[in-house]
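Give me structure tokens for this 279-residue protein.
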Amino acid sequence: MSPAKRRAATGHLITHFGVSQRRACRVLGTSRSTQRRDAPGLRPVDEPVRVRLRDLARARPRFGYRRLCALLRAEGHDINHKRVARLCREEGLRVRGNTRKRRRAGTSTAQRLAATAANQVWAIDYQFDTTSDGRTLKLCNIVDEFTREALSVTVGRFCDADATVTLLDNLARRRGAPVFVRCDNGPELTSAALRDWCRFNSAGICFIDPGSPWQNGYVESFNSRLRDELLSVEILDTLIQAQILAEDWRNDYNWNRPHSALGNQPPAKYAATLKTSQN
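Here you go.
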């Protein structure tokens, strides 16, 4: 007799003959642990949340349940992260984990410079990709370490020291020059052009140790998000297309994407709250 038929026979004995569950199981020779209620169906109250979760996961396929929960809360849903995790699991909305090997991080002996205010430390780094014809794209990414804002994601076929200085000039005119610039020891960043720009703008340079990218962790983390959510997802055919998509992604990152280090606030909105509190 199948488990389903055993449960049905046990229920028949209990209902029509008034025997206890223990006695009914003894008569049928089955264990009481097999007597379980059928799993409940999908709850109708979850259906609107399921629909919205599917839409969000389709638009942001690299977001896990915690960031999806933050987006739902920002839209006004009073929802627990455990419920979102359950719904994502039932809907099959799982993000494939990163299977790359990780290098064990060493311990830096250099003095760490921690940003304590907005516009104090800008972190600079470069990133590479290719268009569909195999030609190189070079991205210059600049991040405010305190507010986590993406100040620039500039895409070109090349980006030398002069182009980097021009980019910093444009940012400084809009936001003011930073107190420090954090960067690695690449040839563009150890050039006389960048040193002169920092001297003329009364900004210091904080070089990380050679071969120690973990000392520039904020922009490295930003690079990984950019790679995961844009560069590894989109096929870029032309330079103009890459520039438009990168700028759209940067604006979305600053204004819509919840950042876990900022209490799931987008960086630009967090920066706006800092300005309001200071005024």
